[in-house]
């Protein structure tokens, strides 16, 4: 019983190979029978070889003909083989039946080889799916219980022991370990993780036991998104492949018409005999078929996608692999892209009427609702005020304990690229850049202007905080309620510093060496901060104080000048520009969900140097595709010339035709290395 199951599984997995083997065996016995004059056995064995070897091609060809009303190369091969057999029966030259059977056999072998070569790419892609275990060890009422991954819920606490795969994305609650993230991010060295750090499904835990809290559904984990996108990439044909597909449909019709003309006109024009005419027409159907041309593109692009996935570069489809190699201009967002996005509060400066605590308290009331890195940094600073804040002598000191009586705001509204507003304790709180805050206040205090300008010249980002409405006033050291409504007034400014990524400068230099003609930086930040970062990384052209629609318009202008333009970003405000760009590239770890969904390429480890790797892959793929197309067309031309000169027979034509197909398929698989 077990043997029968294994045999059934083997025949299912290697159906093309089994069919080719049986076809070859029957052809061999049929040839022996024909050679010995046993016509009865020959006419039994050879048709069986035709049916077994050509069944799949005939089925696919007829399905395409009847359902899509189109001709394809599979049907042309079968017609050529049956035509050769018919000619052999008509002329009683039975070796032609052998020729037709050889055509079927070589076509079947070619199909099996193509299947194996494509399966190699499939295995590289499917290997992603084995990166997550089927079950997770969940803590339920203090006890560990294994449940299927699909049953995990947000908030569940799971235990991962040393040497185990992380089953789903989560936040570490307790424990310390090193994680091998190579399968997800392409990082070769293990990364240290401890309490509060995010871990990803499919990464391998090192020596420490971890207790992890599930913070998103298992199907939304990073690895699951990767799998879905790579699977989607397999089914989406890039423009070049779509062109080849359209070309094939018209080309097949031309071949049929030309074949009919070649089967009828030569006896009248050049005095050929009918046997030679029909045989040459059948050979023409074989050698002129564009099988190799059809295989010139997709195996190459799928191999490039699999290669990128192994290196932490996720191409959402083959079209983007094509385009990244043609990029002439690249636009970078600043915060979270050229910088780490780990913004920290550098200093808080308040007006004379407020304390630093007042400024932070007001800012946090609305920024606690923000997903922006600046908002998160301000909230973090509020929880660690004593450690983070430097107290200027001009400002009133913080509470010695550093604790703030924080409040929640209502009616919070974020304006991407500008700021955020909300109502806290009957006061409207305005937090944002100077231009945004000036919409609510009459004047910005001169002292704060100078302080902000000084910080910006140092490359700091400055956030202004203002409020409008009823407030508590400070009079002679005591607090009293001011009941009348007041106009909006500035409370203070917060300076934040964001560290430039260590690899940013080297990446920009590498891109310039690769021939990228224009590299620009787009940011909603102020001019001084933007130029400070640009100078540090080697970017000469800077656009600052931009709204999301401004970034979009700049991408459009770049496209008019450079055609193929890439945009690299990570935030919600980058989404319109990412969508408009010829190639949108998102940071996979720090990027927002909107940016990840909008982008065409995702850098899984947030490593900028992978952009150059992606461009190299794109250029290699284009070079290989061009080589494959030249090889395919060259073989077709050589075989056509050889056919008209009478130097090749049907089996040789099939070998040349199918050999070129296998050759270009194997050539495409070079990108797997």
Task: Briefly say what this structure is.
The protein is α+β, with helices and mostly antiparallel strands.
Mind explaining what this structure looks like?
By secondary structure, this protein is an alpha+beta fold. A 7-stranded mixed sheet has the order 10-24-23-22-11-20-21, with helices on both faces. β14 (419-424) and β15 form a beta hairpin. α3 packs antiparallel against α4 (73-91) and α4 runs antiparallel to α5. It is elongated, with a radius of gyration of 34 Å.
Descriptive key words:
673 residues, alpha+beta, 7-stranded mixed beta sheet, 6-stranded antiparallel beta sheet, 26 helices, 24 strands
Topology, element by element:
Layout: H1 2-13, H2 15-35, H3 39-67, H4 73-91, H5 95-126, E1 135-140, E2 143-148, E3 157-160, E4 170-174, E5 177-180, H6 182-185, E6 191-193, E7 198-199, E8 204-205, E9 210-214, H7 222-235, H8 239-264, H9 266-269, H10 274-287, H11 291-294, H12 298-310, E10 313-315, H13 318-324, E11 329-333, H14 334-338, E12 344-350, H15 356-367, H16 373-383, H17 385-388, E13 410-415, E14 419-424, E15 427-432, H18 434-437, H19 446-457, E16 461-469, E17 471-475, E18 478-482, E19 489-497, H20 504-513, E20 518-522, H21 527-537, E21 541-543, H22 548-562, E22 565-569, H23 575-580, E23 583-587, H24 593-598, E24 601-603, H25 610-645, H26 650-668
Parallel strand pairs: 11-20, 11-22, 20-21, 22-23, 23-24
Antiparallel strand pairs: 1-2, 1-3, 3-9, 4-7, 4-9, 5-6, 5-8, 10-24, 12-19, 13-14, 14-15, 15-16, 16-19, 17-18
Helix pairs in contact: 2-3, 2-5, 3-4, 3-5, 4-5, 4-10, 5-12, 5-26, 7-12, 8-10, 10-25, 10-26, 12-13, 12-25, 12-26, 13-25, 15-16, 25-26
């Amino acid at each position: 019983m077990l043997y029968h199951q294994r045999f059934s599984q083997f025949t299912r997995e290697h159906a093309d190979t089994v069919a080719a083997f049986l076809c070859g065996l029957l052809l061999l016995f049929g040839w022996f029978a024909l050679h010995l004059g046993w016509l009865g056995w020959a006419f039994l064995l050879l048709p069986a070889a035709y049916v077994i070897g050509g069944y799949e091609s005939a089925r696919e060809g007829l399905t395409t003909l009847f359902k899509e009303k189109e001709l394809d190369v599979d049907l042309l091969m079968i017609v050529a083989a049956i035509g050769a057999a018919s000619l052999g029966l008509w002329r009683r030259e039975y070796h032609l039946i052998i020729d037709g059977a050889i055509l079927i056999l070589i076509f079947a072998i070619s199909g099996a080889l193509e299947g194996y070569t494509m399966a190699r790419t499939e295995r590289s892609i499917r290997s992603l799916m084995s990166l997550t275990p089927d079950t997770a060890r969940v803590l339920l009422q203090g006890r560990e219980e294994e449940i299927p991954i699909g049953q995990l819920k947000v908030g569940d606490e799971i235990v991962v022991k040393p040497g185990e795969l992380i089953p789903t994305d989560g936040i570490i609650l307790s424990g310390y370990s090193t994680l091998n993230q190579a399968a997800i991010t392409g990082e070769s060295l293990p990364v240290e993780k401890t309490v509060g750090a995010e871990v990803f499904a499919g990464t391998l835990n090192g020596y420490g036991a971890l207790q992890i809290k599930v913070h998103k559904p298992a199907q939304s984990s990073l690895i699951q998104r990767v799998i879905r996108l790579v699977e989607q990439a397999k089914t989406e044909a890039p423009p070049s492949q779509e062109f080849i597909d359209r070309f094939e449909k018209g080309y097949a019709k031309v071949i049929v018409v030309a074949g009919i003309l070649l089967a009828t006109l030569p006896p009248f024009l050049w005095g050929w005999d009918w046997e030679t005419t029909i045989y040459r027409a059948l050979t023409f159907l074989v050698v002129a078929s564009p099988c190799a041309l059809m295989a010139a593109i997709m195996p190459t692009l799928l191999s490039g996608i699999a290669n990128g996935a192994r290196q932490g570069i996720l191409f959402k489809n083959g079209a983007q692999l094509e385009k990244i190699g043609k990029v002439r201009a690249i636009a970078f967002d600043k915060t979270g892209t050229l910088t780490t996005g780990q913004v920290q509060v550098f200093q808080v400066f308040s007006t004379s009427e407020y304390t630093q605590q007042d400024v932070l308290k007001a800012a946090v009331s609305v920024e606690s609702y923000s997903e922006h890195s600046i908002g998160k940094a301000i909230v973090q600073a509020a929880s660690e005020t004593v450690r983070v804040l430097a107290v200027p002598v001009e400002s009133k000191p913080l509470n010695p304990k550093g604790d703030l009586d924080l409040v929640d705001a209502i009616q919070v509204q974020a304006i991407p690229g500008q700021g955020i507003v909300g109502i806290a304790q009957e006061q409207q709180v305005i937090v944002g850049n100077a231009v945004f805050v000036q919409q609510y206040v009459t004047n910005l205090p001169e002292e704060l202007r100078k302080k902000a300008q000084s910080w910006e010249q140092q490359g700091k980002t400055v956030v202004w905080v203002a409020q409008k409405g009823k407030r508590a006033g400070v009079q002679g050291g005591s607090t009293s309620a001011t009941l009348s409504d007041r106009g909006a007034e500035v409370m203070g400014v917060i300076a934040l510093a964001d560290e430039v990524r260590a690899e940013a400068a080297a990446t920009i230099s590498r891109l310039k060496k690769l021939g990228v003609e224009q590299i620009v930086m787009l940011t909603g930040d102020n001019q001084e901060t933007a130029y400070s970062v640009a100078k540090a990384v080697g970017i000469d052209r800077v656009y600052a104080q931009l709204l999301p629609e401004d970034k979009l318009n700049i991408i459009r202008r770049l496209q008019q000048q450079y055609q193929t333009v890439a945009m690299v970003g990570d935030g919600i405000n980058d989404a319109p520009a990412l969508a408009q760009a010829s190639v949108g590239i998102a940071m996979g770890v720090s990027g927002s969900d909107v940016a990840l969904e909008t982008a065409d390429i995702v850098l899984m480890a947030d490593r900028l140097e992978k952009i150059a790797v992606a461009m190299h892959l794109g250029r290699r793929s284009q070079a290989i595709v061009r080589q494959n197309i030249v090889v395919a067309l060259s073989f077709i031309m050589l075989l056509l010339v050889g056919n008209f000169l009478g130097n090749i027979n049907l089996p040789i034509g099939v070998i040349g035709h199918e050999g070129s197909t296998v050759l270009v398929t194997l050539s495409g698989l070079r990108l797997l290395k």
